[in-house]
Amino acid sequence: MSTRPRLFVPTDLMAGSPVALDESQSKYLxxxxxxxxxxxxxxxxxxxxxxxxxxxxxxxxxxxxxxxxTQLREQGILTDLHLLFxxxxxxxxxxxxxxxxxxxxxxxxxxxxxxxxxxxxRVDRLEKLTMxxxxxxxxLNMPRVLQPLHLIKAIEALPSDRRVYFCDERGDSExxxxxxxxxxxxxxxxxxxxxxxxxxxxxxGPEGGFSPQERKMLRKMEGIYPVSxxxxxxxxxxxxxxALTLFQALCGxxxxxxxxxxxxx
Length: 265
Fold this sequence. Notes:
Helix content is about 30%, strand content about 25%. The protein has helices at about 25-30, 90-100, 125-135, 150-155, 190-195, 210-220, 235-250, 255-260; strands spanning about 5-10, 20, 40-45, 50-60, 65-75, 80-85, 105-110, 145, 150, 165, 185, 200-205, 225-230. The radius of gyration is 21 Å and the shape is elongated.
């Protein structure tokens, strides 16, 4: 892994183009990393791959300019994976967003459910978290963070061909009226092994899980697959990480990297 600092920049990248640094980027490079003119930085913008740049000019303590030189990595093919999640208390939502970025999610959709306890979502703050996580984890893009939607509207906004893996922590119980052999939540790994390819979304509920009414409603909708993540009740943030990890290992870019098909983040 390269030791050169790595930054997300919004500008187009090509050989010879200048990149103006904002105040926080300048402070990071020149005060924290103590870079000087001529030293190397890696930059990416989510569109043009990753490029090598050099510090071209330092303008005081809070501004600077880089000069782009050569491309290090092409953008590549992205894993088309969405995460629909109920907002949690602040630090737990931060954890979900950070780990989802690390695990290659392309779209983060906060959803409001009957038991959602946190109804305030600062999209700008979550976008900053995704940028920081993308810089640290060698991603070539940042996931999009969408405005919160109520559960049904979020599902309806998805294309009809996108499979939704509904992490249902109680839906495999025969004691529940949505249980039984025909409607049982199956182990997620078994369901993924049957699908392998296709666009997908993972749906994870809030601290209290989904309400009985929401479970019944979800099970009646086309393209929804109730899945189980094991015999224990997981915290919401743990369930998100577990489900995303399973998907990437069985259907996503972890599998692609192993077989050499070249999916890149």
